[in-house]
């Protein structure tokens, strides 16, 4: 994900994945799913990559991915940015 070219798999890492469930803002999820599709990877793989980059203080996306994200945000009317983090309150039904 860090470059727009596919990186060759050099050493595979054996890991254990667990099934989890968490709630996420609807439009954010749509953008994430669209980006995963753009990269032809699973949503889980995308989220793992983003988190691993964030843990090291690195950006997970190159220029093409950022442009794709900007387009997906327009398509799904996602007007939230990093300033909204930790301030989102769910609407009551």
List keywords for this structure.
mainly alpha
End-to-end span in angstroms? 37 Å
Structural class of the secondary structure composition?
A: mainly alpha
Biggest β-sheet strands, sense, barrel: none
Structure annotation, total helices: 3
Helix content: 40-55%
Globally, the shape reads: globular
Strand composition percent: under 5%
Order of helices and strands: HHH
Low-pLDDT residue intervals, each spanning 5 or more residues: 2-6
- What is the averaged pLDDT score? 91
Question: How much is the radius of gyration in Å?
Answer: 15 Å
Please provide the count of β strands. 0
Describe this structure in words.
This protein has 93 residues and is an all-alpha fold. 43% of the residues lie in helices and 0% in strands. It has three helices and no strands. It is globular. The termini are far apart. Residues 2-6 have low confidence and may be disordered.
């Amino acid at each position: 994900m860090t470059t727009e070219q596919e990186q060759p798999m050099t050493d595979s890492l054996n890991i254990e994945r667990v099934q989890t469930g968490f709630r996420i803002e609807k439009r954010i999820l749509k953008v994430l799913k669209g980006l995963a599709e753009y990269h032809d990877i699973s949503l889980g793989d995308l989220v793992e990559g983003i988190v691993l980059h964030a843990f090291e203080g690195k950006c997970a996306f190159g220029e093409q991915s950022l442009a794709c994200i900007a387009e997906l945000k327009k398509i799904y009317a996602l007007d939230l940015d990093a300033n909204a983090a930790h301030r989102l309150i769910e609407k009551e039904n």
